[in-house]
Amino acid sequence: MPAAESYPDDLRYHAEHDWARIDGDEATLGITWFAQDSLGELVHYEAPEVGSSVSKDTSYGEVESVKAVSDIVAPLSGEVLEVNGKVVDEPETVNYDPYGEGWLIRIRMSDASEVDALMDAGAYRAHVAEQ
Amino acid sequence: MTAEPGRAWRDTPLVFERSRPGRRAGRPPRPDLPVPELPGSLRRSQPPRLPELAEPEIVRHFTALADRTFGVDTGFYPLGSCTMKHNPRVHERLAALPGFRDLHPHAEDEDAQGALELMWNLQEILAEIAGLPAVTLQPAAGSQGELTGLMLMRAYFDERGEERDTIITADTAHGTNPASVTMAGYQLARVETDARGNLDLADLRAKVNERTAGLMLTNPSTLGLFDEGIEEVAEIFHGAGALLYYDGANLNAVVGLSRPGDMGFDIVHYNLHKTFSQPHGGGGPGGGPVAVRESIEPYLPAPVVVRDGDVFRLDHDRPKSIGRVRGFAGPFGVFVRAYAYMRAYGPELRDMSEVAVLNANYVLARLRDAYDLPYDRHCMHEFVLSARNLKREHGITALDVAKRLMDYGIHPPTVYFPLVVPEALMIEPTETEPKERLDDFVDAMLAIAQEAAESPEVLKSAPHGRPVRRLDEVRAAKQPVLRYLFDEHPALVT
Amino acid sequence: MGYLSLTDADRAEMLAAIGVSSLDELFDQIPPGVRFGRELEVPPALGEAELARHLEELASRNVHTGSELSFVGAGIYDHYVPSVADVVLSRGEFLTAYTPYQPEMSQGTLQAIFEYQTVICELTGMDVSNASGYDGCTVAADACFVARHVSDRRKVVLAETLNPQVRQVVKTYARGFGFEVVELGHRDGVVDPDELGAAASDAAAVFFQQPNFLGCLEDAPALAAAANDAGALSVAHVDLMSLSVLESPGAYGCALAIGEGQSAGNWPSYGGPHYGFLASRSDYVRRMPGRIVGETVDADGRRAYVLTLQTREQHIRREKATSNITTNQTLLALAGLATLSWLGPEGLREVGETCLALSQYARERVPLEPAFDQPVFKEVAFRTPMPARELVRRARERGVNPGYALGRDYEGMEDVLLVAVTEKKTVEDLDRLASVIEEVCA
Predict the structure, then answer these.
(1) Gap between the Cα atoms of C95 and A45, Å rounded
(2) Is some CB atom of chain A closer than 8 A to the CB atom of B478?
(3) pLDDT of B490 over the 90 cut
(4) pTM of this prediction?
């Protein structure tokens, strides 16, 4: 079953429909319910390499449905520590659980102050309402 | 497989499944000569598993597949931007004349005078239609014509010592335009469409500068609308020293009515398979000749067909040419058909475009109240409706409308394109349809709009009368099966 | 005009429905400054009978393969096209449909493409084939674009024994890809694997042809290994009609196999339309250009076919697409499928063996020195005692076109003649070639 719409309060959000869960100097990244709903069932996740670096506001990978492809935009900069292999094998995991099992990468942040520029859940909900 | 009424239509085995070891059709000649031994490492180790059938089953197989295919010969096919017009049968007979079909492309020019004259005549007519003097027939299709055009721009600016790296395309452009821009090594900039469906001139002025190599534009656009500001558009680009490229996908709207060269375009491609009735062949072949202004002529791909008095020849000696984009001088069989089509019309090619526009406007007039019309103007040869009213009110999408049309024996229009219109239905009737077929289509579309309100589930589960129902496209993409797997292949019905 | 159906009454009724009084009103949107104010200056309209006569007259002025005994090949070959190919080419449903965007309307085309992909994979030993490219030249440019996406290197190596037109097209495209193109010379008609390996050390891809343009069989397994060891994509340009007797590129480890499909099922047609094929190992499936058909099921669980992995393509990925290709050469590819189904594995092997036998016979019988000491498949290059073009001219005066003068493409080969056979040639044809050459060289 695809997940129901939600934007958890403990996450920070980027306008390109990406979320970040902050844990010390590390962060887990993924795409929001709105992003997966716009794309439809995901069939492919083009992941970055572990050890590569991602930079805020630029693409670090792609997710695809049958008829659409979308860049995944990094909400924060840092080094890729881990890629979610479950999503590589079963991309639809993102549709079922975008904020849990459907996470995409884990990074070590290179500039923790970037977090301040991200939206909280309330601001992001308002952003989605305008779409 | 057990017998079941209707199964022959629904389930057609693969040619490999009709195959039986030891059967064969073709028996090539075998001269009474020894077959030399090849070095072991060059010799085939595993024979290819080609199908093994006698001729009757081969013929039946392809006939069964043809039965499961819908063409213009079958019925109305208003696939927007593809110009699915009637394909005269005499073309097939003419392209198969031994003097054309069996002519080797390495033939000396003096042995190919008839072919070269045909190509030269075709160039002349194309030049007159575009209002531009020089033509290359070489590109294999529209998208290759686009790429050729961009390469010509680069050669033009290179010689002038100008470094320009950006091409501007419209937000309504076919995907081929941005894809060609990347393949040609250019950067892409996008210009928006204004509320009337013309290019947004303010946005355009802000984006054109000394780095701009040119514009790629379809006119009429993929919305089926002629750009009313085209003269200003040309001024903006030429004023900045940039060039204009005309994507001829929609040329069928304006032949004899307005010429790209007169609109200010410097480079034009034609789609011979759209405007000039080369049959589309389930995906191809096509032909994508390109016409240019005098100043760009030196860079055309080699060879080009030239005339010296009464003699025609291929000119390979073109030192400034961008090079070759395809083998030989182009898809000659396509030229035979396109030339025959043009000669059948003569100057009345103008009627072709006029009737294409009349047919489209008639269908538009009859459908405008049942569907959303995002740009309320007379259209050219095609128009774009939106099913967003049906989606809002009944949860019926453009895809549902498309699938339901199949049950009325009509090929769906192009859907979800152009991207600027949500739930888009892009409808191009072409000039060769009689009024009754247009009325059939309109009646079907009106009935579907009614069904959307009364029995939406019928639309959601359509089509009901085709050999297959809607497909699981997610499975096709996630677990790709792209070839027959022989012993490991899934059964016909799972 | 017999292609238009509207009567005057239809027109009047339609204009009324639109709410305009004349057709001209529909064209108000065209600014007056760009309206075309005169009649097109093109030749007058012809009825079908006159049209047929005009084109028949043009066709009659061409000297075609049926009007002289010809041994010209050099990329386009006079193999037999069976009548079953006409079944595909003449069925209106195949002929007049377009790209199968709506699978429920086009299961026949889709299934046939799926079968074509399978045949190409079987012959080349590859995992994936697309639904066809424009021709044997442009698929090489496509393969370069694959290499550009999978490699950081910015150079391609082309064996000089690769078809000259293929090399020219790659060079034309390479500029936009940001690729440097390096050509590698031959030794006695073939490429040296060590030299190829050295050139490949900083190359994204290496292209060679088997059998090569000079007619010789390369040590293709060694070339592929040298390219692979150097970290370059190995791309073999092959002839479908040879792949029952010659080893498949997949078996000797190539990354991609490409080629001109004309020899299998298409007429020469003065250069087209034909089909190019492009197949790869499964590693590169997401970088493949063009249409690909996949198998799936419908809502009832029945097997069905559909265009798949479309996110590679221009209509979705736009400027990031794997190619700009849209229209391809499906109809010609399906004629190829019908032809190869008609031949079957036995028939194709016999075609291959006949080519081998006849080219060996030509080598022994033609009173000229073979130009290269290499095994051949269906073309043999001979040294000529006069410029090869002059020999061609003189032989043609005697009704035999003896082959292709390689000096047209290769400097220093002005005295090399490339003689092509197919299974359509006979021992008597080659005897006649031999005696004509003997006469003109006497």
Answers:
(1) 38
(2) yes
(3) no
(4) 0.97
